Amino acid sequence: MTAMLRRLWGPAAAPRRQTPAQLFAQADRRRRDGRAAEAARLVAAGLAQDPDNLTGHLLAAYLHLAARTIEPARGEFTWILGRDPAHPRALLGLARIALEEGDVETCRESLGRALRIYPDFPEAQALLGATAARRPAPAPAPPPASPLERMRLPTLARGLIVLGPDGGVLTAQPESLAGHGEQLARMAGLAAATLRSARLGAPRRAVVESSEESLFVRLDPALTLALALPRTTQITQGLLEVNRMWAAVGHDGARRVS
Amino acid sequence: MSRLRLGLQMDGASRGRQVRDIVQTVARLHGVKGALIVAPDGFVIAAEVPESVSVESLAALAATLGRDLEVGATRLGRGAFQTALFSAEDGTLFLATSPIGFVVVLAEPQASLQSVRAAVAEGVGLIEAAWSEAAARAASG
């Protein structure tokens, strides 16, 4: 793991001889400044002296997460729990990885373990609340020839998904997008929890921009509608398009879920 | 010259300080309630948020949402996740990915989306520039 950190963050400068505790304290300060590469070098130096240090492995796990290298991070958290099964930060770390992988049950189980040991753990409470906020259910079978299926998409649209209040897919165009419903429901649930935490209220619209596509979303407690458009679409244009689809779907969706 | 860039040039401190400057500058924009930069593990690197907001909870959720957007975009073939905005009854939350984590901005309902988006993009650009420069120095040194 130490060698992997070195490779990940570049060549290590030879640090002055310091104790592992000093090195980890310095590393934590660097990490707090967002200076992950320097922190990683210090952690690697500390673990070289004290390979079984829990603090060092926890910092290593965080630095792997910072680099979005999930498997080594999982390995570090698991290693820590092998020595301290009640370590709350390691439980939280594994919970976050499980959620990232769509494994809500494992996530909740890890958070529950952490909260049983440390009930006053705000991050764990927040994540547990988010995973409980909205859990997708299997898609109900839509009635044949529903107006949802007959809706015309904008010319440049790449796809449309409509979810019901339980996160089940009401319609998807093309149909192959139905498999993306769970991802959309999870994003909507996490966004709702994040907005609640920021005291901004219930979500209404979202725009998610990736390098190749923009996703325009409208949502309320009864419906979530997501329209995928090319990345070059102007936000105002995308919002107009999604509003048009919402107007077309909204009444139908409200009737179906009532 | 933009307000963000001016703020950074006036203060030639460490990159850690630069990150705090970015957060402070964005948080002072008209119509912005607060801003934070959170590592992908949920660790708060810098934050300026109202006292009524629990920064630990918000950071944990924002980082989880950010990672979900990153992983989801890749998994669904949309390319790399870049930015998102979520508008709600009482304001808008902006979230953008950067080399050190996620830039999160909380804005009032009447805030100019374009202005905040531009400020977030500039903040991300400054972080990218500072960190790629540092990475290049580390690689050559």
Question: Please, could you describe this protein's structure?
Answer:
The complex is a heterodimer of chains A (258) and B (141). By secondary structure, chain A is an alpha+beta fold. Chain A is 55% helix and 12% strand. Chain A has ten helices and five strands, in the order H-H-H-H-H-H-H-H-E-E-H-E-E-E-H. Chain A has helices at 2-9, 20-32, 36-49, 54-66, 70-83, 88-100, 104-117, 122-133, 181-197, 235-257, and strands spanning 159-163, 169-173, 203-210, 213-219, 224-230. In chain A, strand 1 and strand 2 form a beta hairpin. In chain A, helix 2 packs parallel to helix 4 (54-66), helix 5 (70-83) runs antiparallel to helix 6 and helix 8 crosses helix 9 (181-197). Mean pLDDT of chain A is 85; it is low at 141-145 and 252-258. Chain B has helices spanning 3-10, 15-27, 55-75, 113-140; strands spanning 32-38, 44-48, 81-88, 91-98, 101-107. In chain B, a hairpin with a 2-residue loop joins strand 3 and strand 4 (91-98). A five-stranded antiparallel β-sheet of chain B has the order 2-1-5-4-3, with helices on both faces. In chain B, helix 1 packs antiparallel against helix 2. With 141 residues, chain B is an alpha+beta fold. At the A-B interface, helix 2, helix 4, helix 6, helix 8 and helix 9 of A face helix 2, helix 3, strand 3, strand 4 and helix 4 of B.
The whole-number mean of residue pLDDT values of chain B reads 84
Count of alpha and pi helical runs of chain A = 10
For the biggest β-sheet of chain B, the strand order reads: 2-1-5-4-3
Query: Helix/strand/pairing class of chain A, anyone?
Result: alpha+beta
How much of the sequence of chain A is in beta strands? 5-15%
Write the H/E string of chain A, N to C: HHHHHHHHEEHEEEH
How much helical structure, as a percent, in the residues of chain A?
A: 40-55%
Shape of chain B: globular
| Helix/sheet category of chain B | alpha+beta
The amount of beta strand of chain B, in percent, is: 15-25%
Fraction of residues in helix of chain B: 40-55%
Sheet with the most strands: spatial strand order of chain A: 2-1-5-4-3
Question: How many extended strands of chain A?
Answer: 5
Order of helix and strand elements from N to C terminus of chain B = HHEEHEEEH
